[in-house]
Design brief:
InterPro entries: Aldolase_TIM, Alpha-hydoxy_acid_DH_FMN, FMN-dep_DH, FMN_HAD, FMN_hydac_DH_AS. GO terms for molecular function: FMN binding; oxidoreductase activity. Belongs to the FMN-dependent alpha-hydroxy acid dehydrogenase family. By secondary structure, the protein is an alpha/beta fold. The protein has two domains: 355 residues, Alpha-Beta Barrel (TIM Barrel); 33 residues. The protein has 15 helices and twelve strands. The strands form three sheets. Strands 4-11-10-9-8-7-6-5 form an eight-stranded parallel β-sheet. A two-stranded antiparallel ribbon has the order 1-12. The protein has a two-stranded antiparallel sheet with strand order 2-3. Helix 13 links the parallel strand 10 and strand 11. Helix 4 runs parallel beside helix 14. The structure holds flavin mononucleotide. Flavin mononucleotide binds next to helix 2. Flavin mononucleotide (FMN) binds next to helix 2.
């Protein structure tokens, strides 16, 4: 029997990335906080949900088109914001952006991108959307400049990361003493105006604050950020919809609605912040219920298969984002590898749709997934029935 060497699933890409990446960069990508319970749960929790397929339907034509924030896109599968794609490949976010453009969907660009946001979005097209992820830096005026640039460049939404009042404790990063290599720059911190003003000189960072200090201000988190100070402020400086990333509870979902946010991303930062929270897929139903269709709900965390995307959609997510799978693809083969990660997931999603009798994303609802408690009740009902049946057989045998 002949075997193919090319990756056939995300696990294969993960394995290849572990061979080709620099050990400290790899551990930065893969690390989770503390005992990594939440990071591991994000993946394992999907297994508790089982698909409830329907058969004998015509599934020759499958469409993954959907709308996000009122705009048509090719697929509900998107790319979550991740710092420093150049750790995986020299073309960094440019390669990711080209892969995303061939694929459709949403790409969320991290504030900590190693390519300037204007260059990343220039690789896109109208089948997709770019959203800009924000950290509120200790100097809020710098965040404001990034917001203005994003709006000018054509980003369709702002994604405010709200689960990082302080950086989670990622033990592997401490062990490897991870710091980005010197050839990598956080290009969104450089003022694009400054280069054009000073004849060919390299642009300088905003307010001349050294790049490393700006990075440290992100890494240090911003513990003083609150609902009342940040959301009204953001709304006063932008017309773009605001999406909160890092919501895990019904309570915060209701607050997001009351503060006029357009959507929330159910996320625990890939298990990199607070260890011991619910897995994203377990938190999703609570958030969906609290959202009452008033705002869009998306999710990320632990998605490694098309069937995971299907389950998240069935539980009410409007779109599903992946981070590490794309980074592993990028490490494997740049743009082609990132595209391969997306293609694998997209094809598996289509396969799951066909095998479960669903032809459109809109058809995928909670009737297609069995939640853990339902499974438990059903299996105990089955056991009960079997017991009753046995009783009857026993009675009959005694006739
Ligand atoms: C290496 C790495 C860097 C990340 N950088 C950011 C970031 O800059 N901003 C952010 O909001 N989330 C960041 N995240 C979190 C992801 O957006 C996402 O929430 C999470 O990783 C999804 O889980 P997954 O990796 O299991 O797909 C990062 C995650 C990883 C793995």
């Amino acid at each position: 029997m002949e075997f193919t060497n090319s990756p056939v699933c995300i696990k294969d890409l993960e394995h290849i990335a572990s061979k080709v990446m620099h050990p400290s960069a790899l551990s930065y990508y893969n690390s989770g906080a503390d005992d990594e319970q939440t990071k591991l749960d994000n993946i394992a929790a999907f297994d508790k949900y089982r698909i409830h397929p329907r058969i004998l339907r015509n599934v020759t034509a499958i469409s993954t088109e959907t709308t996000i924030l009122g705009q048509q896109i090719a697929t509900p599968l998107g790319i979550a914001p991740c710092a420093m794609h150049m750790l995986a490949h020299p073309a960094g976010e440019l390669a990711t952006s080209r892969a995303a453009a061939q694929h459709g969907g949403v790409m969320i660009l991290s504030t900590l991108s190693t390519i300037a946001l204007e260059r990343v979005i220039a690789e896109g097209n109208s089948d997709m959307q770019y959203w800009m992820q924000l950290y509120v830096l200790s100097d809020w005026s710098i965040t404001e400049k990034i917001v203005q640039r994003s709006e000018r460049a054509g980003f369709k939404a702002l994604v405010l990361t709200v689960d990082m009042p302080i950086l989670g404790r990622r033990r592997d990063d401490i062990r490897t003493r991870f710091i980005p290599p010197p050839h990598i720059h956080l290009e969104n911190f450089f003022d694009p105006e400054s280069a054009s003003n000073s004849e060919g000189a390299a642009p300088s960072t905003y307010n001349d604050v050294p790049e490393l200090l700006l990075a440290a201000s992100v890494a240090g988190g911003n513990p003083a950020v609150t609902w009342d100070n940040v959301i009204p402020w953001l709304k006063s400086i932008t017309k773009l919809p605001i999406i909160l990333k890092g919501i895990l509870t019904a309570e915060d979902t209701k607050l997001a609605i009351s503060y006029g946010c357009a959507g929330v991303i159910v996320s625990n930062h890939g298990g990199r912040q607070l260890d011991g929270t619910l897995a994203s897929i377990d938190a999703l139903p609570h958030v969906v219920e609290a959202a009452e269709d008033k705002i869009e709900v998306y999710m990320d965390g632990g998605v490694r298969k098309g069937s995971d995307i299907f389950k998240a959609l069935a539980l009410g997510a409007r779109a599903v984002f992946v981070a590490r799978p794309v980074l592993w693809g990028l490490a494997y083969d740049g743009e082609a590898g990132a595209k391969q990660a997306l293609d694998l997931l997209q094809n598996e999603l289509k396969l799951t749709m066909m095998l479960s009798g669903t032809r459109t994303i809109q058809e995928i609802d909670d009737s297609y997934v069995l939640e853990p408690v339902t499974q438990w009740i059903q299996s105990s009902v089955r056991r009960q029935k079997r017991a009753n049946h046995n009783d009857i057989e026993e009675l009959k045998s005694k006739l």
